[in-house]
């Protein structure tokens, strides 16, 4: 990909949440903002999903079916090829940020979330690109 293609490519967001209504809402919110959105309601291998979607940022529920989202985050942040990708936790449990373990996440958005907060948090990690 040359510099021009890189600048013009839509920024990619991977969203992982086991609640389909959250995935639908986030897609409706973010696609009109010119983001390329990939949603998953379950994940077996986080690195396969990252390879497939090539995200610029990951929004992830902290409590997922079958695994703690913090464990996925820790795997992402320990891997030399993925540690640069910002990981934002989404959770209805605001005490998540006080939970034991250093998962290396970049930010936290409490559910229910305010759409302006979601957009501001994403923009904090994905600066606007010139067209």
TrEMBL record:
GO BP terms in the entry: phosphorelay signal transduction system
Keyword Repressor: no
One Pfam assignment: Response_reg
SMART domains, per database record: REC
Domain of life: Bacteria
Ranges of residues in domain Response regulatory: 12-126
4-aspartylphosphate modified-residue sites: 61
InterPro entries given in the database record: Bact_response_regulator (IPR050595), CheY-like_superfamily (IPR011006), Sig_transdc_resp-reg_receiver (IPR001789)
UniProt entry keywords in alphabetical sequence: Phosphoprotein
Name of this chain's protein: Response regulator
Gene source species: Mucilaginibacter agri
